[in-house]
Amino acid sequence: MRKTIVAGNWKMHKTQKETVALLEEISSKKPNTATEIIVAPTFVNLSKAVEVTKGKGITVAAQNMHQAEGGAFTGEIAASMLTDIGVNTVILGHSERRAYFHETDALLANKVNTALKHEMRVIFCFGEELKDRQQNNHFNIVEYQLRDGLFHLEKKDWAHIVLAYEPVWAIGTGETASPEQAQEMHQFIRSLVEKVYGFEIADNLTILYGGSVKPDNAKEIFSKPDVDGGLIGGAALKADDFLAIVNGF
Ligand SMILES: O=C(CO)COP(=O)(O)O
């Protein structure tokens, strides 16, 4: 059975006080579920988040990290700094990082390598822009992103990879991919991985959907056979909404 995950990407939201309050509310209302719950607060609140969620069945992830082991990279965070405070999962390749911070597939391949070297789990994000879909180029774009970001990996590495398909046009726009569009792309993604790495790895791979997932559409999206959970932005900032999405399984 594939692992199901609902992850909240908090982006640049929540002070430390707000982080603690939200995590306490999520912990206290959290259902007993086989679905893994992940939260990704900002860097400055990660230590606190690890402390507050200890023993509560909530995984804390980082939203980004640098590819180098360390050095003169002002303002950046290394993998060893994350694992040192108990953060062993990292989101890489989010479309906001790609768009605003010019992260390329080649750079992301490096970041993935560094994360894996530190035995971290990677939630690797990718997805097409609106113009790609309008030009019917979305399958190609996704294929290139996966090929250039991940297909250099060895078979054993895939145990530490979670994919997150996030069509850029659906992020923060209120417009979500239809469950059929999500399923169509997720199936395509799984078939690509199968072609390169074989059935077992593809079949075991958790593929999340992200982009305007809300309590009222989560259930239908998650009901699709190749959608194994969600990466949630806006709706992850309120405990009740986030947990309603978790209950979508
Ligand atoms: O970017 C996202 C999660 O990483 C999705 O954001 P929204 O859920 O706000 O559309």
Automatic annotation (TrEMBL):
It comes from Flavobacterium cucumis. The keyword Isomerase applies. The active site is at residues 94, 166. This is Triosephosphate isomerase. Homodimer. GO terms for molecular function: triose-phosphate isomerase activity. GO terms for cellular component: cytosol. Its EC number is 5.3.1.1. Keywords: Cytoplasm, Gluconeogenesis, Glycolysis, Isomerase. Pathway: Carbohydrate degradation; glycolysis; D-glyceraldehyde 3-phosphate from glycerone phosphate: step 1/1; Carbohydrate biosynthesis; gluconeogenesis. Signal peptide: none annotated.
